[in-house]
Amino acid sequence: MISEQMWSGMILLGLVGIALPTAFRAVEARLPRWYTGLPTAQRGR
After folding, report:
1. Distance between CA atoms of 45 and 43, rounded to whole angstroms?
2. More confident residue, 6 or 34
3. Where are the alpha helices (DSSP H) in 1-45?
4. How confident is the model over 3-12, as a mean pLDDT?
5. How confident is the model at residue 8 (pLDDT cuts 50, 70, 90)?
6. What is the tens place of the pLDDT at every residue in 11-41?
7. Nearest to 18 by CA among 26, 7, 29, 28
8. Residue of 2, 20, 23, 25 with fewest CB within 10 Å of its CB?
9. Is 1 helix (H, G, I), strand (E, B) or coil?
10. Measured between alpha carbons, how far is 22 from 43 in angstroms, rounded to an integer?
């Protein structure tokens, strides 16, 4: 019984460890679109 809970906890932590960085990467790719061209625009001035 304890080992089943341990394995399910390990699998859950592994899935969370995969899902969180993927979600943050998706948010980071969409959210600051205005920022991606800002350094280039400032250098051109």
Report:
1. 6
2. 6
3. 2-30, 33-36, 38-43
4. 93
5. very high
6. 999 999 999 999 999 988 887 766 666 666 6
7. 26
8. 2
9. coil
10. 31
Rounded to whole angstroms, how far apart are CA atoms 14 and 7?
10
The residue written with tokens 């350094």 in the block is 39
CA torsion sign for 36, 40, 42, 45 is negative
Find the radius of gyration of the CA atoms of the chain.
20
What gap in Å lies between CA 22 and CA 26, rounded to an integer? 6
> Quick one: tokens of 8?
């399910």
Which pLDDT value is given to residue 40? Answer: 67
20: tokens are: 């969180």
